[in-house]
């Protein structure tokens, strides 16, 4: 791009349209009294800079979240100096661009204040042409303590309180996070530490130009149902130094579309919008969610000219798809449906909720993102909800979701709180929302915007004890922020996907009720978040038969290999100070054991470390089995309406990933290791799935299919005894037609008949395993099982002798297990060797099983054999 500058200038044709100077790299960082002064990378934050300089230890180590509280209570200054080329300096306009400042800062350029920032989620730019000088230029960013700022803002808001003041004590966090436009979970959450970061978390540069500069651009296709024609909506935000006329050329060569628009560029910052019609006789390849088709794209090129001189040149991928959120009457039942139709096809959303992958965003590199998102796809997920207490994710996150077919439910970043609505706050939020929507709306993966997390519910069910007399003013603030501002901007900016005000919400019904429904958890409308730790999770009758389950879950502990690097020996017991310090959910550690004790013997080894690791294991068994039961209930409720409830079309459990090494609802540990739940998700989200459950004293098996085509299928049900290997008897159903996108009963047998028919079986001595088979006898989907009693009551269950052999072949490692007895929840663990098994946590009812291990770095048979441990339910007591 810069190669012909001299040549062009000499010819007088044109000079470079724009020149850029990157300012990322090593800066200098110091605290307010100068006692700390260290080099610091940009992008980055204070905590990671101090860690890199070994000024502090790993902030995740033991109790360091408490030891390092002082960092966020201090003010910090980032400083750099640089020389500017003559070529840049002669430009008419020079912008100093910050893609992200965390959060409250004053910016000084050569000693002059050029601006302030107060919102982590905004891009900022400042005109600095008049401040540039020969030789050295100095740029300083003075960051104020976010904790102090939030406190001062809350005090300045004198008229009434905006709850909650502080997080619960168990979270060991900071107060008034709702007063600062910053990652809300950075002041602590019920799964995360308090590390209120400060820093320059995204890139910084100078952009210099003479005539015009492209600031932001987006494109999204719209489909006209009545004409059957696609059109591509392209928007450019351009900063022009003077008013001129020119042309904008859009081209989608693979679809034979190209058009040139005469344009008048007006001085200042302006949005331009163009429509490119796609020839109706062209076949447009559609983007589909994972499991429903592929994710093809087309290349769009955009060029801007003035008198044949190229002024801007950019391009992007374009994906074609439509999305509709259907809320309509279902037959004669009460309530409204709530499901997504992609390209006209109803799609059941299977997945989980995404939280920030690290407390320090600069550590979330491409490999971390790829690994987590690939793990989601490998567990047969097609959707993730980017939860509203974190951050709008980086571009790469959405690029990968586009590429993998992961649908994104995108929250705006407001969570579990009331928010202020004075003018300054609304103004910065408006800018945040329009920037984020413009940045993200080109991504087909995003299928819905949602205004906030749980704030409708917080108001409706009065989490913060707001007196009845004051309620109305909070409702007014709620409507002002999410309806009159966030929603208004989204509707104007993005007609290509639906908007919801909150999650959970009753959707259209909430709107009818003035945006805050009496009961936002109503199973007849919208989405539901549901948690119950005390009721028995094996009993599906305790779950709400909702239209859409966007949050539900159970906690577990991560494995020992994940905890070990951030702890010491005295921490390695379930009732250590460390174990309760890391638990940020009130009574969480007790709840896990109480739930586990309903069905399992609790670990009681006299060896302290074994007892600890066994306890970690049993919490994972409990979590996996609970979330499995609940998810299977939602999937099998897809095609039924019972007492008005049902037609469930989404199951997004809480939560996919972890922010640090601690107990939480996640299915993937910090560092990427799969918990037992994630292995279970692979099965319970598979496209074809048999689900077994008891109702009215009968055993039912449902067949569920997410395929596009019909299946002719039968259920094969086998009974096994806890006493010995091998099936006792086999029952099969008739072949049944299961259309794509349907869940239907395929097998039903009274329990008494089932047990008596198998001779020696009783509830306490037998268990059921089942799978689906097509008319050629080929198994479709995974094998599943149904326990007839709690394993703690099972008669005949004994400690098996399991031996394992690791082998290597062309395609990697295989582990072959031999067992001499029935073994439930067989768990293979290779400690700190990163990677994952093809299957884990499984039931062994035959004497052998081979699973593969996919190592994420080079390993060997020796290393794996040495690291491998095998645990089954009977090993813990
Ligand atoms: C300077 O600030 C640090 C960090 O806040 C503090 O620990 C130290 O005591 C201060 N030093 C002086 C001389 O005030
Ligand atoms: C940080 O800056 C704020 C605002 O300028 C000031 O009130 C506060 O005293 C400063 N804190 C420290 C530790 O210097
Ligand atoms: C920047 O300019 C100053 C003053 O002209 C000069 O001394 C210095 O060497 C320059 N630095 C670089 C990196 O060019
Ligand atoms: C959609 O197509 C119909 C029929 O051709 C046309 O009347 C209408 O203007 C089109 N709508 C848009 C938004 O282009
Ligand atoms: C649309 O495509 C068809 C077939 O490729 C072609 O014959 C026709 O001229 C195109 N129409 C336009 C308006 O480009
Ligand atoms: C783009 O321009 C068209 C035609 O001028 C207008 O109807 C539409 O509302 C604009 N869209 C946006 C998102 O500004
Ligand atoms: C366990 O099984 C292996 C191989 O099947 C055998 O060699 C070993 O002796 C058995 N161990 C016990 C304790 O029975
Ligand atoms: C594994 O079990 C199957 C039957 O379940 C048997 O056919 C096979 O021989 C066994 N393999 C080994 C290595 O024992
Ligand atoms: C642990 O519990 C089991 C089952 O109740 C019992 O048989 C065993 O003796 C106990 N072990 C210890 C070390 O207390």
Automatic annotation (TrEMBL):
Transcription as UniProt keyword: no
Signal peptide: 1-15
Cellular component terms per the entry's GO annotation: lysosome
Positions of the Glycoside hydrolase family 2 catalytic domain: 340-555
Record carries keyword Transcription: no
Catalysed transformations (reactions): Hydrolysis of terminal, non-reducing beta-D-mannose residues in beta-D-mannosides
InterPro entries tied to this protein: Beta-gal/glucu_dom_sf, Beta-mannosidase-like_N2, Beta-mannosidase_GH2, Beta-mannosidase_Ig, Galactose-bd-like_sf, GH, Glyco_hydro_2_cat, Ig-like_fold
Enzyme class: hydrolase
Biological role: Exoglycosidase that cleaves the single beta-linked mannose residue from the non-reducing end of all N-linked glycoprotein oligosaccharides.
UniProt protein name: Beta-mannosidase
Organism in which the protein naturally occurs: Nothobranchius furzeri
Gene name as annotated: MANBA
């Amino acid at each position: 791009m810069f190669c012909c500058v001299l040549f062009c200038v000499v010819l007088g044709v044109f000079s470079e349209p724009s020149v850029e100077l990157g300012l990322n790299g090593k800066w200098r960082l110091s605290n307010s009294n100068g006692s700390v002064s260290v080099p610091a990378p940009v992008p980055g934050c204070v905590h990671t800079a101090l860690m890199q300089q070994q000024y502090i230890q790993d902030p995740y180590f033991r109790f360091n979240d408490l030891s390092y509280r002082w960092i966020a209570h201090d003010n910090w200054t980032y400083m750099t100096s640089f020389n500017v080329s003559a070529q840049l300096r002669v430009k008419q306009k020079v912008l100093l661009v910050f893609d992200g400042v965390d959060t409250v800062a004053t910016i000084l350029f050569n000693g002059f204040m050029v601006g302030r920032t107060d919102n982590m989620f905004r891009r900022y730019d400042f005109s600095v042409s008049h401040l540039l000088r020969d030789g050295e230029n100095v740029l300083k960013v003075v960051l104020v303590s976010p904790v102090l700022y939030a406190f001062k803002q809350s005090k300045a808001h004198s008229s009434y309180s905006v709850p909650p003041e502080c997080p619960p004590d168990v979270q060991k966090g900071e107060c008034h996070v709702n007063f600062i436009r910053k990652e809300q979970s950075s002041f602590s959450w019920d799964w995360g530490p308090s590390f209120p970061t400060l820093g320059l978390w995204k890139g910084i540069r100078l952009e210099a130009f003479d005539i015009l500069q492209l600031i932001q651009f987006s494109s999204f296709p719209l489909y006209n149902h009545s004409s059957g024609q696609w059109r591509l909506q392209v928007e450019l935000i351009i900063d022009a130094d003077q008013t001129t006329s020119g042309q904008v050329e859009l081209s989608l060569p693979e679809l034979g579309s190209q058009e040139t628009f005469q344009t008048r560029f007006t001085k200042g910052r302006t949005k331009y919008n163009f429509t490119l019609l796609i020839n109706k006789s062209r076949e447009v390849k559609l983007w589909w969610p994972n499991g429903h088709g592929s994710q093809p794209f087309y290349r769009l090129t955009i060029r801007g000219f003035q008198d044949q001189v190229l002024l801007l040149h950019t391009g992007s991928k374009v994906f074609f798809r439509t999305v509709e959120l259907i809320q309509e009457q279902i037959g004669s039942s009460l309530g409204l449906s709530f499901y997504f139709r992609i390209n006209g096809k109803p799609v059941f959303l299977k997945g989980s909720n995404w939280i920030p992958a690290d407390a320090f965003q600069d550590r979330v590199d491409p490999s971390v993102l790829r690994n987590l998102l690939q793990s989601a796809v490998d567990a047969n997920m097609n959707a993730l909800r980017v939860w509203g207490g974190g951050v709008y994710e980086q571009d790469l996150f959405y690029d990968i979701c586009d590429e993998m077919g992961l649908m994104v439910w995108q929250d705006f970043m407001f969570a579990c709180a009331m928010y202020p609505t004075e003018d300054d706050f609304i103004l910065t939020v408006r800018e945040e929302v329009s920037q984020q929507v413009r940045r993200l709306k080109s991504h087909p993966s995003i299928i819905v915007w949602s205004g906030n997390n749980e704030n409708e519910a917080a108001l409706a069910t009065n989490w913060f004890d707001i007196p009845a007399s004051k309620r109305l003013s909070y409702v007014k603030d709620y409507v002002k922020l999410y309806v009159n501002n966030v929603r208004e901007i989204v509707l104007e900016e993005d007609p290509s996907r639906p908007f919801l005000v909150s999650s959970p919400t009753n959707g259209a019904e909430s709107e009818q009720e003035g945006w805050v429904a009496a009961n936002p958890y109503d199973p007849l409308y919208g989405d539901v978040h549901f948690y119950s730790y005390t009721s028995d999770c094996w009993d599906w009758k305790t779950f709400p038969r909702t239209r859409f389950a966007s949050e539900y879950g159970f906690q577990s502990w991560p494995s020992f290999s994940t905890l070990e690097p951030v702890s010491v020996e005295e921490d390695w017991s379930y009732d250590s100070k460390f174990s309760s310090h890391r638990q940020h959910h009130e009574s969480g550690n007790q709840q896990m054991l109480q739930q586990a004790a309903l069905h399992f013997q609790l670990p009681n080894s006299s060896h302290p470390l074994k007892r600890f690791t066994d306890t970690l294991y049993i919490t994972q068994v409990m979590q996996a089995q609970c979330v499995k039961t609940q998810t299977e209930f939602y999937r099998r409720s897809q095609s039924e309406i019972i007492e008005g409830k049902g037609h469930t079309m989404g199951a997004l459990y809480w939560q996919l990933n972890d922010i640090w090494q601690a107990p939480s609802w996640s299915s993937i540990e910090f560092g990427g290791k799969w918990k037992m739940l994630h292995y279970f998700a692979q099965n319970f989200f598979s496209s074809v799935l048999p689900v077994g459950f008891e109702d009215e004293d009968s055993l039912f098996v449902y067949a569920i299919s997410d395929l596009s085509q019909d299946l002719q299928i039968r259920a094969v049900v086998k009974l096994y005894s806890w006493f010995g290997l091998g099936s006792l008897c086999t029952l099969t159903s008739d072949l049944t037609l299961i259309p794509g996108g349907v869940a239907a009963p395929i097998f039903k047998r009274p329990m008494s008949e089932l047990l008596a028919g198998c001779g020696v079986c009783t509830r306490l001595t037998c268990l059921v395993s089942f799978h689906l088979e097509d008319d050629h006898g080929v198994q479709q989907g995974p094998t599943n099982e149904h326990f007839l009693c709690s394993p703690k009551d099972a008669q005949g269950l004994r400690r098996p002798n399991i031996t394992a052999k690791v082998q290597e072949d062309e395609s990697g490692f295989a582990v072959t297990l031999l067992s001499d007895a029935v073994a439930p929840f067989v768990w293979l663990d290779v400690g700190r060797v990163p990677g994952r098994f093809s299957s884990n946590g499984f039931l062994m009812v035959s004497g052998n099983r081979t699973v593969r291990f996919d190592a994420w770095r080079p390993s060997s048979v020796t290393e794996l054999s040495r690291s491998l441990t095998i645990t089954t339910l009977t090993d813990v007591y």
